[in-house]
Amino acid sequence: MNTPTPPYEQVRREIVEQVRAGELAPGDRLPAIRVLAGDLGLAAGTVARAYKLLEEAQIIVTRRGAGTTVAPGAVAACEESAAATSRESGAVADPVVVALFAGPVAEARAKGHGDVEILAAVRAALAARGAAGTS
Questions:
Q1: Is the pLDDT assigned to residue 131 strictly greater than 70?
Q2: d(C-alpha 50, C-alpha 117), whole Å
Q3: According to the 3-state scheme, what is the secondary structure of 16-28?
């Protein structure tokens, strides 16, 4: 994994692509964080961060004692995630939506929050809204 993309994001994207390609199906078990980290030569915290993002996107589910599995609605969630990644990778954002976020982003930055933290907060807010069954 030798690219400018952070390792946790590479792990996240790889799992998304495996679900989209049918290599991983809903209900399939994923390796434990420490096992996958060891296999990839990464820190456990890196894999944990990827898993956390995947859980927020409702692609995987982790249950204490039962491990981590691909979520029932993972295929659709992966399609949404792939589309979002594509947009984030250089697609042109809607100027109206950019204007809606300009104020809150500036306020968050003024309070000392970094861009990665702000993006994580937006993803969490979107995931929470999706979990509530609205869009």
A1: no
A2: 14
A3: HHHHHCCCCCCCC
| pLDDT > 70: percent of the chain | 86
Q: Hey, is 92 helix, strand or coil?
A: coil
pLDDT at res. 45 = 96
Which tokens go with 61?
A: 């589910």
Q: By C-alpha distance, which of 58, 70, 66, 68 is closest to 34? A: 68
| pTM to 2 decimal places | 0.62
Which two structure tokens, joined as six digits, stand for 16? Answer: 């998304």
CA 54 – CA 101 distance, rounded (Å):
24
Confidence of residue 135 (pLDDT cuts 50, 70, 90): very low
The maximal CA–CA distance of the chain, rounded, in angstroms, is 46
- Report residue 15 CA to chain centroid gap: 10
**Among 131, 111, 108, residue whose Cα is nearest residue 120:** 108
Apex 53 CA angle, 15 and 133, nearest 5: 105
- Above 80 in pLDDT, residue 84? no
